[in-house]
């Protein structure tokens, strides 16, 4: 290739790289800017169709990669805002058949598991049931009961369910029931704990 057309070829190649590297917009925008600069160098020597194509695709690359940078900045801002919001949520309380209190923001949610029983049913089914009582003064939402099965002190399986009505008003009691098929395990006891949002 003639040396007088090398800047035009460089402009064209860099403009293609600038367009294809949109997922790495910092690199893509640099390639696109260089494509426009190399077009100007080629234009001073001898304009070519290749360098003109490099100019057009370079400008498109600058716009496209610039938009991608703005988009990524927005996404990062959104995730940063969401992460800060999640940090301000009330943490889950875990109860092992006893009371636990959450006094964040002057809320008092005290959940108690009562009448917990786990046993084998027909054909390998395991049945767990009981009730949850809210001894606090605030409604607990999305009350989830996590059930762990043990053979002696060794954990063997777990499952979860929600109370019948999902939310539990202050002073109210609601039941839960869960069945799951685990015909290959044996257990001697079960424990449960509650989480809520």
Summarize the helices and strands and which ones pair or pack.
Blueprint: H1 6-20, H2 25-45, H3 49-87, E1 101-102, E2 109-120, E3 125-134, E4 144-151, E5 154-162, E6 173-181, E7 189-195
Antiparallel strand pairs: 1-2, 2-3, 3-6, 4-5, 4-7
Helix pairs in contact: 1-2, 1-3, 2-3
- Helical/strand content category: alpha+beta
Major beta sheet, specifics?
4 strands, antiparallel
Based on CA atoms alone, the radius of gyration comes out at 32 Å
Outline the low-pLDDT stretches: 84-105
Work out the helix count: 3
Tally of discrete structural domains:
2
* SSE sequence, one letter per element: HHHEEEEEEE
Straight-line N-to-C gap: 69 Å
What share of residues are in beta strands? 25-35%
Task: Kindly state the number of beta strands.
Answer: 7
The percent of residues in helical segments reads: 25-40%
Principal-axis shape equals: elongated
What would you say the CATH architecture of the largest domain is? Sandwich
Which whole number gives the mean pLDDT?
Answer: 81
Sequence of strands across the biggest β-sheet: 1-2-3-6
CATH class of the largest domain: Mainly Beta
CATH topology group of the largest domain: Immunoglobulin-like
Describe the protein in words.
The protein is of the alpha+beta class and 197 residues long. The chain has 2 domains: 3-87; 101-195, Immunoglobulin-like (Sandwich). The protein is built from 3 helices and 7 strands, in the order αααβββββββ. It has helices spanning 6-20, 25-45, 49-87; strands at 101-102, 109-120, 125-134, 144-151, 154-162, 173-181, 189-195. The strands form 2 sheets. A 4-stranded antiparallel beta sheet has the order 1-2-3-6, with no helix packed on it. A 3-stranded antiparallel beta sheet has the order 5-4-7, with no helix packed on it. α1 packs antiparallel against α2. The radius of gyration is 32 Å and the shape is elongated.
């Amino acid at each position: 290739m003639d040396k007088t057309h090398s800047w035009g070829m460089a402009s064209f190649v860099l403009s293609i790289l600038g367009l294809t590297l949109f997922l790495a917009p910092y690199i893509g925008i640099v390639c696109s800017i260089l494509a426009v600069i190399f077009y100007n160098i080629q234009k001073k020597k001898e304009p070519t169709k290749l360098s003109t194509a490099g100019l057009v695709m370079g400008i498109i690359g600058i716009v496209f990669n610039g938009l991608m940078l703005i988009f990524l900045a927005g996404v990062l801002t959104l995730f940063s805002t969401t992460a800060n919001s999640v940090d301000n949520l009330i943490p889950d309380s875990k109860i092992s058949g006893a009371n636990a209190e959450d006094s964040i923001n002057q809320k008092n949610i005290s959940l108690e598991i009562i009448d917990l029983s786990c046993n084998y049913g027909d054909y390998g089914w395991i049945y767990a049931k009981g009730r949850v009582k809210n001894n606090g003064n605030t409604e607990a939402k999305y009350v989830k009961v996590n059930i762990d099965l043990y053979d002696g002190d060794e954990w063997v399986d777990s499952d979860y369910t929600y109370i019948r009505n999902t939310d539990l008003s202050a002073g109210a009691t609601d039941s839960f029931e869960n069945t799951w098929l685990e015909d290959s395990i044996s257990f001697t006891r079960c424990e449960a704990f509650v989480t809520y949002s």
